[in-house]
Design goal:
Largest sheet: 6 strands, mixed
Helix content: 40-55%
Strand content: 5-15%
Distance between the termini: 41 Å
Length: 771
């Protein structure tokens, strides 16, 4: 399937579109119906009639944003119309929800007349707490926003104008901090003179750049005083200065800062080479910047570079701004988003980047020891601290400038924000982001399976892994062709004809000949993709193995144990599941391997789970689960869990571990505080250790299917090399997720194990299996 078909399938799959309305109150019986609708609904209606501010108490208005467009300037697609722009608006709504827990109505206005858009938005005021204007062409967008800000009493914000301005402004402040340049002295050149460029230039002026030091260039060249072209408008004219420079090449000569908001290839290395010392280059065109960072550094090693892309340092991404700006503005019921609020967002982002970066944040990007400097000028888009810095800064600026009616307790507000969004939403995004930093070879033994082929295409397209499909090449090509999936950059190995068959058979025979395996049987086993793939991983021809779509769990794990084996220091191999809920992550072990583990084995399973949890940036809180609470029932099964907790405390005193305890006790703080105040658990548990395989397997499946959690696993802990087993019937996204986990596992292993992994070589360590 091509990227085009992938995108279309993504939007059409299951329930069409990307957003839905979800009820927040029960409607299970006649009483609920009477309260939700007639006659009960009359009561809040009458209250709001008397005091309109109560709409924020009795309705969703205080958490609702309208994303409004007329489709006249959609992304890089241009004037495609309101209906065609709807998928983008739904996507914007998704970002609001994911990053700031704001609900969205996406509203597409079927008119290119700016006065129609203005009237439409004015009529929306009783419905929403704020309006995000999106993808409206210049200069209409300026006129629409200015009019609405004057005539409405809710925040109105055109993100295409201000988002890039706010975020790149933070990057500019920090770039000047690094280079030691004075903002009042720098010269700035823009490639592009549309809504984003003009708004960004105006924002830079408010930051301290002199207006006469800014040159804007459009398709016709430099905008200068007296230029008489038909496309000159009053907004461009604000930057029409007396200058003899007519081209962007001439404008960049000696300039301190370049800001690209135009198209790929707009500038060349030769132009950048003539800029001032320590030039700042913001090449922000997407998907391809005006000039690539490598091209900049080829001519200027002293340059500080930012782009709009995630695969280079210093990503200027609007998602660092609009969700949190609206969150802060709406939470204090601001009547507008004024310049001081935008400036507060810029300065909050700039200051956050100068803070020490927690390992939990840097690990999401596969980085270590991230520090403020040339390659880290602004926070990462998935840094959860952005919500806690930007929203309060915007809220406080709204109050301080009189845009909001009430004083707020900042400490209490930050605590409220922390409770609004858990870390869970970013966990899988962080793993995939980290994997894409250093993709590894992941062998997929079920290479003829359509879901596996589709997943392999995604792994390549998203830069997550370098997949290797095992199977008959003709069969794989036939299946891929039927699904319109291109196989470029996907390796294919046929176990029946591979040139390394003889070497693998000899390796397998030597490993298992004292367990009754003949050389002829070893050769026959290699027709099985799991055995062949395990040999690839064991001998270093692949970095990880992911399998199990069409096989039962033992069919995958048994060959891997025979060929690759357990880690030399492992006391037990176990299977862990990571269950990702909206606002929390729970790790469950053991759910797949050990039928009736001993107390000593349970302590080891919990220890390994704690390591995984810390790698994900989450401090583990371990509960040894049972049907008993702290000796309330005397039974060997309960005593086993209590013993396991004691052993784990003795092994690592820094771990928070409790048990034996019942599952509700592990999550209910009221029970713990009331009945068990001595408990070490002061927050709900996030690592659950079960007494046996029955309990663990049943529990995680109930949580996954009835609790709505995304299940990632089983993450196989204790293996010598990365091997991860899918659930039978796993879907495409499950395969992609597990492959990303496998890549991160492989990244973390040390590289001092020799190719054959022979005895005597130092064992590799891994975030999932180090002991």
């Amino acid at each position: 399937m091509t990227k085009r078909e992938d995108a279309l399938d993504y939007h059409a799959r299951g329930r069409p579109g990307k957003i839905a309305v979800v009820p927040t109150k029960p409607l299970a019986n006649q009483r609920d119906l009477a309260l939700a609708y007639s006659p009960g609904v009359a009561e809040p209606c009458l209250e709001i009639k008397q005091n309109p501010e109560l709409a924020y108490k009795y309705t969703a208005r205080g958490n609702l944003v309208a994303v409004v467009t007329n489709g006249t300037a959609v992304l890089g697609l241009g004037n495609i119309g309101a209906l065609a722009g709807k998928p983008v608006m739904e996507g914007k709504g998704n970002l609001f929800k994911q990053f700031a827990d704001l609900d969205v109505f996406d509203l597409e206005v079927g008119s290119a007349n700016p006065d129609d858009v203005i009237r439409f938005c004015q009529l929306l005021e009783p419905t929403v707490g704020g309006i995000n204007l999106e993808d409206i062409k210049a200069p209409d967008c300026f006129y629409i926003e200015e009019t609405l800000r004057k005539t409405m009493n809710i925040p109105v914000f055109h993100d295409d104008q201000h988002g890039t301005a706010i975020i790149s402004g933070a990057a500019l402040l920090n770039a000047l901090e690094v280079t030691g340049k004075d903002i009042a002295q720098i010269r700035v050149v823009f490639s592009g003179a549309g809504a984003a460029a003009i708004s960004t230039a105006e924002h830079y002026v408010r930051l301290g750049v002199k207006r006469e030091h800014i040159i804007l260039c459009d398709r016709a060249g430099v905008i200068f005083a007296g230029r008489d072209y038909g496309d000159m408008d009053p907004y461009k004219a604000r930057f029409a200065h007396d200058t003899d420079r007519r081209t962007i090449d001439e404008a960049l000569d000696g300039a301190d800062v370049f800001v690209g908001l135009s198209v790929a290839g707009a500038v060349t290395g030769e132009m950048i080479a003539r800029m001032a010392p320590s030039p700042v280059v913001f090449a922000l065109a997407n998907p391809m910047p005006e000039i690539l960072p490598d091209q900049v550094r080829a001519v200027r090693s002293d340059a500080l570079v930012a782009t709009g892309r995630s695969d280079f340092p210093n990503q200027v991404n609007n998602v660092l701004g609009f969700p949190f700006i609206f969150r802060g503005a709406i939470d204090v019921r601001a009547r507008e988003i004024n310049e001081e609020m935008k400036m507060a967002a810029t300065r909050a982002l700039a200051l956050l980047a100068r803070e020490d970066v927690p390992e939990s944040v840097s690990s999401l990007y596969g980085l270590r020891d991230v520090r403020f400097g040339p390659d880290y000028l602004i926070p990462f888009p998935f840094d959860p601290r952005v919500l806690l810095w930007v929203a309060p800064a915007v809220a406080w600026a709204a109050v301080a400038t009189g845009a909001a009616p009430e004083f707020i307790d900042l400490d209490a507000y930050v605590e409220q924000l922390e409770g609004r969004l858990g870390r869970a939403r970013g966990i899988m995004r962080g793993i995939i982001n980290r994997a894409s930093r250093q993709p590894k070879r992941v062998v997929l033994p079920e290479g003829e399976e359509p879901k596996v082929i589709r997943a392999a295409r995604i792994l390549v397209d998203d830069g997550i892994a370098r997949p290797v499909l095992l199977g008959n090449r003709a069969a794989i090509e036939q299946v891929a062709g039927a699904m319109l999936i291109e196989l470029n950059e996907i390796d294919i190995e046929d176990p029946a004809t591979a040139p390394q068959r003889a070497m693998y058979a000899d390796f397998l025979w030597r490993k298992r000949h004292r367990k009754g395996l003949s050389l002829a049987e070893a050769e026959r086993r290699l027709f099985n993709g799991i055995y062949f793939g395990s040999c690839m991983v064991a001998l270093g021809d692949a970095d990880a193995l992911v399998s199990g779509v069409n096989m039962h769990y033992p069919e995958t794990i048994r060959p891997a144990l025979e060929v690759i084996g357990a880690h030399p220091k492992a006391e037990v191999v176990s299977g862990m599941y990571m269950l990702v809920f909206d606002k929390q992550v729970v790790f469950c072990g053991d759910t797949t391997v050990n039928i009736d583990p001993t107390a000593e084995q349970l302590a080891q399973i919990a220890y390994a789970a704690a390591r995984i949890t810390r790698t994900m940036g989450i401090e583990p809180r371990i509960a040894m689960l049972s049907f008993s609470n702290f000796g309330s029932v005397r039974h060997p099964e309960a005593e086993k869990m209590a013993r396991a907790a004691e052993l784990l405390r003795a092994r690592d005193a820094t771990l928070v571990v409790e048990g034996e305890m019942q599952a509700d006790t592990a999550f209910d703080m009221e029970i713990l505080k009331r009945d068990y105040p001595f408990s070490a658990l002061k927050e709900p548990a996030n690592v659950l250790i079960f007494p046996n395989l029955s309990a663990g397997n049943i529990a995680y499946k109930l949580l996954h299917h009835l609790g709505g959690a995304t299940a990632i696993g089983p993450i196989l802990v204790g293996m010598r090399r990365p091997v991860h087993v899918l659930e039978r019937g796993a879907d495409v996204q499950d395969i992609v997720n597990m492959a990303a986990v496998a890549v991160v596992d492989a990244q973390e292993r040390s590289h001092n194990t020799d190719r054959a992994g022979r005895p005597g070589s130092a064992p590799g360590t891994t975030i999932f299996s180090r002991l």
